[in-house]
Amino acid sequence: MVKVKIMGVGNKKTVLIMKEKRQVPQAVKDNLKFFVRTKKEILKALKDKKKTVPDLSEELNMPKDKVLYFLMSLLKYGFVEVDGIDDMDEYFYYKLKDNG
Amino acid sequence: MQENKLKEYDALVIGAGIAGGETALNLANVGNKVLLIDKDLTVGGKMIMLSKVFPTLDCSACITTPKVSEIARHQNITVLTSTEASDIIQKDDGTFEALITTQPRYVVVEDCTGCQLCEDACPVNVDDQYQYGLVGRKAAFIPFSIASPRAAAIDIENCTLCGACERACPTDCIDFTQTVEKYTIKCKTVVVATGFQLFDPTLIPRYGFGRFKNVITSMQMERQLAPTRPFNTVLRPSDGKMPDNIAYVLCTGSRDKTVGTPICSQVCCMYSTKQAQLLMGALPMADITLYYLHIRAFGKGFNEFYAQAQSMGVEYVKGKVAKITEKEDGNLILRYEDINTGKVTETEHDMVVLSVGILPNEGITQLFTNRKLELDPFNYVSQANPLESPAMTSIEGVFVAGVASAPMDIPDSILSGGAASSEAANYIRHIAKKTVEV
Ligand SMILES: Cc1cc2nc3c(=O)[nH]c(=O)nc-3n(C[C@H](O)[C@H](O)[C@H](O)COP(=O)(O)OP(=O)(O)OC[C@H]3O[C@@H](n4cnc5c(N)ncnc54)[C@H](O)[C@@H]3O)c2cc1C
Ligand code: SF4
Ligand code: SF4
């Protein structure tokens, strides 16, 4: 077994061996591109002001279910947080998380 | 890379849900060496994913976690995840040999600290199967916070091979050179505890699951109610609104010959009643309505639990839901026959939960080669002598535990694991005695 391992954090590169064996499918590349773009758009839209899912949907011209899915993923990854609920007690406001 | 190790155990337990876990612990506590395998990345089965449990409303994670860590620490138990057994052969002396196959996780579990730095570094976002698709996860990921082992895994199908996780890992435990491992083991007994799968509600197209975003399954609601929930609270998947009028459609895919499951799933009435109570707590202003055919509340404390839900204001409507349609605002119209009046009625709700039934896992019989593991008419593992020896199967020395034998709840799965472990322990003793005599 070949082991490309240079000790020390961040120096291990076994991924290179996998790269020789495996092609990354186009769908996986496309999915990454789409996520990176969507993440950027959502974070940018939340930069100045807290917003609800319908607010973001209108601003980004993206279906509300998609906005929720990505917003909740970003909440899980620690980029956004909840900031109260609207007057009707229906939709939460989300804002960028202050990561110090 | 293929390694050939011939290892010996007293027992092989297939499936590490609550039933398999209980069986393994009991066997190990009386001195047997147990190999406990699960095809998933974590042990704990469905129970570890639940919010709270009926009828006591105990936190499911709080009960599962200590058990799971006892299993992980037990010196007589070897746990292998991402692992399946096949080619099981019974020898003339009554013992077994099995081929064990472990899929690569691309992470050396023993060295992973669960620090999540690989997750932070990974740029990929795909559906999180442990949140039933409600939210995303990374391609380098820890299944969930109480997973056991609490170690990362690489989802190679969705990995872009960017190497960011490997560069971020402080313990150098990510290893893309891992390959499938296969080896044969010997054991004296086998316990099948492979549990169940959920009914796929797209098989009932008139309920709109998959098309209407606010029609979700009970397992998705279970996740929404759990402390490790996908959203910040219970929300409608269509637009993130807090729902205030939720309907449950009981018996979705149970007691329904048209979808091939004529039997009752045993747990849907009670888990729906549980979720309704939890929703009353999470959303105090919400109306919760359960559409049912019959409420089956036959277990210890169940009828009281049902009465408690009614006294909290949960509405029970005896009605057969014929069809669900979606309005433009995402609300749903339920068309149902009110069984008490015979009238066809329509009501509007802002979210619908389908109380999906449970189905046996397929492919269990194919694991055995020279003996036939019989199934019952509903494809669960047949109990050869349900009254005198409930864990006995059609193969001497092979036992069954939990939902692999029939739909049942957690207390019954634990009892069933208890029966399987004592019958398996007897068989191990019997084999040992025979070997000494020979
Ligand atoms: C929505 C919902 C809510 C519920 N709520 C409650 C509740 O509140 N209270 C209650 O008492 N019960 C509840 N239940 C029922 C409860 O989930 C089951 O009783 C319990 O999980 C059964 O445990 P088990 O170990 O038999 O099966 P499972 O939990 O299904 O475990 C089986 C394990 O075997 C593994 N496996 C399957 N096939 C193989 C294979 N070929 N090789 C290796 N491994 C394999 C699986 O990965 C899994 O980990 C609920 C069920 C549902 C669906
Ligand atoms: S190599 Fe794969 S798993 Fe690791 S960070 Fe890149 S995409 Fe994620
Ligand atoms: S694989 Fe490495 S970076 Fe990822 S959780 Fe484990 S120790 Fe941390």
Write up what this structure looks like:
The complex is a heterodimer of chains A (100) and B (438). Chain A has 100 residues and is mainly α. Helices cover 48% and strands 11% of the residues of chain A. Chain A has four helices and two strands, in the order H-H-H-H-E-E. In chain A, strands 1-2 form a two-stranded antiparallel ribbon. In chain A, helix 3 crosses helix 4. Chain A is elongated. Chain A starts with 14 loop residues before the first helix and ends with a strand. The N terminus of chain A is likely disordered. With 438 residues, chain B is of the alpha/beta class. Chain B folds into three domains: 190 residues, FAD/NAD(P)-binding domain; 69 residues, Alpha-Beta Plaits; 159 residues, FAD/NAD(P)-binding domain (3-Layer(bba) Sandwich). Chain B has eight helices and 24 strands. A seven-stranded mixed β-sheet of chain B has the order 16-22-17-18-19-20-21. In chain B, strands 6-3-2-14-24 form a five-stranded parallel β-sheet, with helices on one face. A four-stranded mixed β-sheet of chain B has the order 1-13-8-7, with no helix packed on it. In chain B, a hairpin with a 5-residue loop joins strand 7 and strand 8. Chain B is globular and about 75 Å long. The interface between A and B is large, with 46 and 43 residues. The complex binds flavin-adenine dinucleotide and iron/sulfur cluster (SF4) (2 copies). The site of one iron/sulfur cluster has 13 residues of chain B, from helix 4.
